[in-house]
Amino acid sequence: MNIEHLVTMANQIGTFFDSYPDREEASTEIANHLKRYWAPRMRNQLFEHIDHEQGAGLSPLVLVAIAAHRGEKPSPPPPGGDAG
């Protein structure tokens, strides 16, 4: 998949969770969304972009979320589904 498209999609997820008043919760939910719904190949491309291009084009919140939660397993979805 095209990295520009992945960056755009990651930033859209970040924009949604940016409305959360708790920054830690927003960061966790961004990471959980990427882990739950993105194929490993997509996440790996995004990680390579961060490692080689310093995440050019990614929002600061998305970069923080990925850096903080990159190696963790996602939390289970909340009852009734995921808001993201």
From TrEMBL:
It comes from the Bacteria. This is Formate dehydrogenase subunit delta.
